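so my prof wants the structure for this chain in the tokens format not the other one, which i didnt know existed until like an hour ago. anyway here's the sequence
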Amino acid sequence: MEYGSIADIAKKHGARISYNEIIAPYTSFNIGGVCDVIVVPNSAECICEIVSECREKGIRYYFLGKCTNILVSDDGLRGVVIIAGGDYNSVRREGNDLICDAGASLTRICNTAKNESLTGMEFAYGIPGSAGGGLYMNAGAFGGEMKDVVLYCDYLDTDGSIKRMGKEEMQLSYRHSIFTGTDRIILSVCFELGPGVKDEIAAKMNDIMQRRRDKQPLEYPSAGSTFKRPDGAFAARLIQDSGLKGYVVGGAQVSEKHSGFVINRGGATCDDVCRIIDDIKEKVYADSGIQLECELIKMG
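here's what i got, hopefully its the right format
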């Protein structure tokens, strides 16, 4: 596959581009093989031009955020991988709203809200994702979700046009939005917050982070909660009741600290994680009759 036109667009915008690079270091799981092309864009214009070029030329592409909820194949990804992370991360205030690039980390957004004495984002502190990825899956924790604070987003539609969508159109539900599983690309997100007291916001954020440290295996690479919450039950409890706490497959392990997390305890492969997920689903179903649904997105 010839990627010269993609390189030209990246060069035009000053975006980073690499060839035959391992994607693992870009992911929170630290798993994934060699990709043909990785582009780290620095503007919405760069993203739109690269995506339009890929669509026009029939080049396969992937649009990712901070890669915190994905599991990439050990064989890597063919085509163009666009990672809207560190170079596309602006956050600016307009009244009580924060306008955020899709690649802005939720932690950065939370800290900006705190520094601006704006409240409403505290629940998202420590969620290891981005504004775009968080909205894509309606991320949530500690009693809050993206649907509670999002006002609108700008996105690249499948026809190549940039459009704006209000919250009421987004079909936000548990770990789902209208964007889930589609080719529409979130470019920026507006969060509607309220005035607050900086010290009180900071105290709430610190409390949430301490609760994360106490209960979650943050010291190991992972993709967060591995399974969605089943109706009327908790995945972690079901996994623990099935005797799988600490279960190991290769370099992957069901966390001994929180059974809802599959961690990379060192050298885990995509195959290790897939095997452990399959084993968990099979054992939990046999023991409880409940079919767990994986929260991770497998790529490649």
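also thought this was worth mentioning. The chain has a mean pLDDT of 96.
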